[in-house]
Amino acid sequence: MDAQLPDLEAGKRFYGELFGWTFEDQPTGTVRALKDGEPVASLAHKTDGRLPTVWTVSFATADAEALCRRILAAGGQVVASPAPFGDLGRTALVTDPEGAVFSLWQPGTAAGFGRRHEPGTFAWVQLYARDTETANTFYGDLFHEALFGEGADPDFGRTPVSEVFAPEMPPHLLVHFAVRDLEAALREVTRLGGRTQVPPFGTSYGTAAVVTDNQGASFALLHR
């Protein structure tokens, strides 16, 4: 997962203090975020001010081109076709049929998360959809083995957007970071210049709260 931020240094300060991340510059111009020396995310400078300031989750694939063809056939869109990202891998930007944006990642030297499911790392991604049946069909067909196959360990769920957000909120995927103490983490977000967008609420996968960082990028904090 990665965040495109107007001010990269401000982003490093915010997430470094919130999650205890350290950072490593990459030849691609991005910054790798590390937790205890293992990769957990990346930050990049947003070069086009017209683009939103967001966290984007990437789904791993062995063949980004083939998966893009399947996404188009299933009613999604390809925003940016698969392209090399240095020797780290190949990446593409796509949407589901309702317009929720996500990335594809075909690994090169960067396989993905070095740590997850522990404080300060990726914990879950939730799709907020208007038509949950369309979402079930689209994601189920594309990622059936990962979500439902033998030994699957899914970190993905979906719910109607109106259950948490205003009905006019566009469909989107929301990245969740694990925290040890949700109330303390919310106070830290505020101290660092962010804000609480949706206060704590119960889910089937834990207690979550939706926040924004000091540059407007939304994400969720999750306590299990």
TrEMBL record:
Q: Which Pfam families match?
A: Glyoxalase
Supply the source organism's classification.
Answer: Bacteria, Bacillati, Actinomycetota, Actinomycetes, Kitasatosporales
The species this protein was found in: Streptomyces tendae
- Annotated ranges, domain VOC: 1-107
What is the protein's name according to its record? VOC family protein
The record's InterPro entries line, in alphabetical order, gives:
Anthracycline_SecMetBiosynth, Glyas_Bleomycin-R_OHBP_Dase, Glyas_Fos-R_dOase_dom, VOC_core
What Gene3D superfamilies does the database record attribute to this sequence? 2,3-Dihydroxybiphenyl 1,2-Dioxygenase, domain 1
